[in-house]
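Hi D.,

Good news: the full-assembly prediction came through. Inputs first.
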Amino acid sequence: MVECREIVKKYRSGRGIVHALRGVSFTVAPAARVVIVGKSGSGKTTLLNCLGGLDRPDSGSVIYNGRDLNGLSPLELSLFLRRDMGFVFQFGNLLSYLNVFENIAFPLTLNAVEGRKKKLRVEELLERIGLSDAGPALPHELSGGEVQRVAVARAMAHRPKMLLADEPTASLDSATGKNLIQLMFDMGRESGCTMVLSTHDTEVMDLADQCIRIRDGMVQAAEV
Amino acid sequence: MVVAAVAALIFLSALAVGINDAMIRNSAGLYAGHISATGLPAELPPDSLAVDGVAGIVKRVPVAGILAGPKHFETVIMLGIDPAAEKKNAAFWKKTVQGSFLSGASQGVFISQTLADELAVGAGDTVRFSPGDREHFKPFKVEGVYTTGIDQLDRGLAFCSLAVHPDPQQPWAASVFLKNGVDPEAVLAAYRSSLPVAGSFKSWSQLMPDLRQLIDLNYVSMSMVTVLVFGVVSLGIACAFVIFIMKHLREYGIMKAMGVTAGEMMRLIIMEIMLMNLGASLAGILAGTAAVLLVGSTGIDLTAFTSHNRYFAVSGIIYPRLTAFSLWSPPALALVFSLGSAIWPALLVARKKAADILKVG
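Then the structure:
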């Protein structure tokens, strides 16, 4: 279970201090599919970053299975990220100098998965995302939809407990985007992984177990 | 940038070595050899000096005396020599400006232009030599006149064939010429251990401390140039690395989000930079070596800039030569400076939070 308690996050920018999150609180049940909806600049990315441990809130806490992420040292946080978390970003997800196979294998390598097991897992994921033949391809040889599917496969490769996706369909057409979300949720369901994604797309809400509407850094509504 | 700097510095280092070689070759090869010996007993054969590394030996028997022209006379050291051995090993005979060098056993002398002017004689004239007194003068024909531009050789010396030397049983002097790359100290050590004779042996660096210092100065200057060039180049390298890192910044952010630790990130970036540097250095080594080999076989003729220099009395042609130092010091410095340049951008990435990197990238 993940619990956000009164998260506050401010940034300094050229326009002064930006209040990105103003006391956000909610709870995500294990293996839930959660969608965070909000306009641009509403604080979705900041919230996901705090939720995933990529950023530290100025105040408040993120409790992950009873453990406050704020209390982790940088090394503990890195180890937590590599074992328990998976991320899919809006764009530029793949490492350009690694091919598709190596990109998907990367988190497995970080987690010291043995070579044969790693190969089998990557092949299984490539088949699951419908890119069995794309292993040797470099990221620039893939379409936008294929890149995002590979990103999902990589995020799921090490069987994380939670996957966070920051507007993963933003750069895709609606049909491709819908397929990607379906793929993510299917894979999440199969592995029992909690999935939290942010999106503009209201259609995605229908597929989710929980929807959190955020506006001006505050939770407007949390619907289950 | 690294390729060009490494290649240029390898070539410049090889050129500096070539200049030093040329100065040694000219200074030792003109007359004195790499090792000079004096006071050797008459019964000691020249072949006894032929140890490992020796390319040639010339025997010279000095006797002081008076050389007289038609109107004037001068005190000189008359050196009895083997003209064939001199032609084979030394080069001062090439500095002939009148007549020709000695040949065979002719009753001739080979004198400097300065001495010829003082005695008011020229090639073909007759001079007389007496070893120590004015009573027993022996006539010699001036076979040739030379000028080296080196005061010690251009004043007070006259040469005749050993066959006509007035006193061939005098203790003799030797000039020992070594093969390329042989350390004179090793040969001197061999002489000290194997020759049961008195006599003074000195290497060219003992005889010409000024040349030794000049060579050392050349090395110091070259080392300073190398360090300074890489000091400047490292700024460029640092900029190139910052550009490289900024270009891949988002990917580093993604890696941090996947759980790559700060230490692993530092190692990764430094490894990337080292590999790039290694590739560039290898290319630079190949380019520099190719340039040295290309020019090293033909040499660079700098006679126009060396003709009045005593250390280039024989030839102004420089043959760049690779040594372990000239080959490896530029890439080693490139590596050190590159690593130095890489630390700041690597630290920058390693210490930034993934969210901050992804925001920028």
